[in-house]
């Protein structure tokens, strides 16, 4: 019996890993997908964000439906949807099909994720429950953290389609295991009823909130759509609380929030998720855009964070049983704060400094993420236990959405300022040169084109007017010289002599222009790299004071003596 329970927990871990992996695996492959499908980043962003929006919105109601109609059958249905969505996404011929595929994937994930937690926890005896919850909780954090690394590897070796098609063999394996391990004849919970009003309000609240967080920076936080979504989510939240307070079988039992430790777990889940995902989202973009690294190398450069989560997550469960929750949460919080101190002060061109920051953030997340899932479960049983895991899962998605919304929005504003500064700097530098107006215009056009990509030039240029341009200038000046001196009908020898003179004069001028441009363009390149680097680092500096907020949550958890006596 225990052996079957262990297999069930392992099978549920596969499902959770796949669901959480797809929240972050796509980010690093966006440039490759954009090129492959010949689409705009605006359209592609819907394929990226739809998964997070629907996953967060539907997890609680679909988890509840699974509780009522049979988790095993619902789970297999969810896996089948996830498989179909992965195939749609991986084989998509255009961005519309990719968006459809991601939508189907998210529906499957919203069924699989909460059911995985409940099936895994309830399959083990009470004395083994803590270790099962910790295992499944660690899997969630590890999957989200490994997303960019796995995405980089798959994109490098198998193309962008590989990031979706890799799900297929693992989903099929999970389906086979479920077919063998599940009791597919489980009865429906006839006494249980779906809280329809609560379901609709929770979906409306979470959908409007996550849509606002994901698209707010694009639409404008104070735009009509931004303010409308904010107001809608707030009204839906108030209505949801009122409905749940009077419901006999609420979607989210409000009794959960009477437990200080559950509230602390929810807050730490959101905050730690924000600070981890901010590292996973911004740094790979920094490596590819500013340092011109490939996608694979950029992903591998933040792998130390994932490695620390892998190492510390299992250790943190043991620490919890010895030190109690307060000490463990304090240790993880201090490590994440240390990571943000390093991110704020580091020179990102020196990799060991980046590595130290990634190690500290990853270790801090690894230390808190395993215990948080256990602590959220607390002493709950039955429906409260199931609800606690679904709600914490939703808070994890909100943390991811918040990280993307806050840090990508801050980065976008910083990049806009940086590009304005670079453009002003370039104009001033080029204007002071003793070159023709056309050369000035061409040079500034090159700068403008480069700024549009938000990338630094790969190599320092010494030739700005190349051979094809030189030949065109020689031909143009030659024709002008013939017409000016009325020599269009002159003998060939005269024309050759004029062509030679023009060619020599143009070549000499271009050599002088290239020599004059080299130091100025080199200065512009350095300024570009410096401005873009600061644009990427400034969000971490602004976030640093908020990381100390994690320390305030420590007092929401039980003291060592109280925790160990209860366990």
Automatic annotation (TrEMBL):
Signal peptide: none annotated. It is found in: Cell membrane. It is a multi-pass membrane protein. CDD domains: MFS_MMR_MDR_like (cd17321). The chain crosses the membrane at residues 43-62, 74-97, 103-121, 160-182, 194-214, 226-243, 263-284, 296-320, 327-344, 350-377, 398-416, 540-557. Its main location: membrane. It holds the Pfam family MFS_1. Residues 8-444 form the Major facilitator superfamily (MFS) profile domain. Keywords: Cell membrane, Membrane, Transmembrane, Transmembrane helix, Transport. PANTHER family: BLR6921 PROTEIN, MAJOR FACILITATOR SUPERFAMILY MULTIDRUG TRANSPORTER MFSC. This is MFS transporter. It comes from Levilactobacillus tongjiangensis. The lineage of its organism: Bacteria, Bacillati, Bacillota, Bacilli, Lactobacillales.
């Amino acid at each position: 019996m225990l052996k079957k329970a262990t297999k069930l927990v392992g099978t549920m871990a596969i499902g959770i890993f796949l669901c959480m992996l797809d929240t972050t695996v796509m980010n690093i492959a966006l440039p490759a997908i954009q090129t492959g499908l010949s689409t705009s980043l605006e359209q592609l962003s819907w394929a990226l964000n739809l998964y997070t929006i629907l996953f967060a919105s539907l997890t609680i109601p679909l988890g509840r439906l699974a509780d009522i109609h049979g988790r095993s059958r619902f789970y297999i249905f969810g896996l089948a949807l996830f498989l179909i969505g992965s195939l749609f996404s991986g084989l998509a011929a255009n961005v519309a099909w990719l968006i459809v595929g991601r939508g189907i994937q998210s529906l499957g994930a919203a069924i699989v994720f909460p059911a995985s937690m409940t099936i895994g926890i309830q399959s083990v005896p009470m004395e083994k429950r803590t270790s099962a919850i910790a295992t499944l909780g660690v899997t969630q954090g590890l999957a989200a953290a490994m997303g960019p690394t796995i995405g980089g590897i798959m994109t490098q070796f198998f193309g962008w389609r590989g990031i979706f098609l890799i799900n297929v063999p693992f989903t099929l394996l999970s389906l086979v295991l479920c077919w063998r391990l599940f009791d597919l004849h489980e009865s429906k919970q006839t006494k249980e009823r779906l809280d329809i009003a609560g379901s609709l309000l929770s979906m409306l609240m979470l959908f409007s909130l996550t849509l606002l967080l994901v698209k707010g920076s694009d639409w404008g936080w104070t735009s009509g759509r931004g303010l409308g979504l904010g107001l809608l989510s707030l009204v839906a939240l108030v209505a949801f609380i009122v409905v749940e307070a009077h419901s006999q079988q609420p979607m989210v039992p409000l009794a959960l929030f009477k437990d200080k430790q559950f509230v602390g777990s929810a807050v730490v889940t959101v905050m730690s998720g924000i600070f981890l995902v901010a590292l996973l989202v911004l740094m790979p973009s920094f490596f590819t855009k500013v340092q011109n690294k490939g996608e694979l190398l950029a992903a591998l450069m933040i792998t130390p964070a994932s490695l620390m989560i892998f190492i510390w997550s299992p250790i943190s469960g043991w620490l919890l049983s010895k030190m109690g929750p307060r000490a463990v949460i304090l240790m993880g919080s201090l490590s994440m704060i240390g990571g943000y101190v390093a991110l704020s002060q580091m020179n990102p061109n020196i990799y060991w400094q980046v590595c130290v920051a990634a190690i500290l953030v990853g270790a801090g997340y690894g230390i808190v993420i395993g215990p948080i899932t256990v602590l959220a479960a607390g002493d709950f049983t039955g429906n409260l236990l199931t609800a606690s895991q679904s709600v914490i899962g939703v808070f994890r998605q909100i943390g991811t959405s918040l990280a993307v919304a806050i840090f990508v929005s801050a980065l976008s504003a910083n990049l806009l300022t940086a590009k304005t500064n670079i453009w002003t700097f370039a104009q001033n530098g080029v204007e002071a040169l003793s070159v023709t107006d056309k050369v000035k215009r061409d040079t500034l056009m090159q700068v403008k084109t480069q700024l549009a990509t938000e990338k630094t030039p790969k190599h320092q240029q010494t030739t700005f007017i190349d051979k094809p341009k030189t030949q065109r200038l020689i031909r143009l000046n030659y024709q002008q010289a013939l017409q000016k001196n009325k020599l269009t009908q002159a003998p060939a020898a005269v024309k050759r002599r004029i062509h030679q003179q023009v060619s020599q004069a143009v070549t000499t001028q271009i050599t002088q222009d290239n020599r004059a441009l080299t130091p100025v363009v080199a200065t512009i390149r350095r300024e570009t790299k410096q401005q873009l680097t600061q644009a990427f680092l400034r969000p971490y500096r602004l976030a640093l004071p908020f990381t100390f907020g994690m320390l305030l949550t420590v007092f929401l958890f039980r003291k060592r003596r109280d925790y160990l006596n209860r366990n």
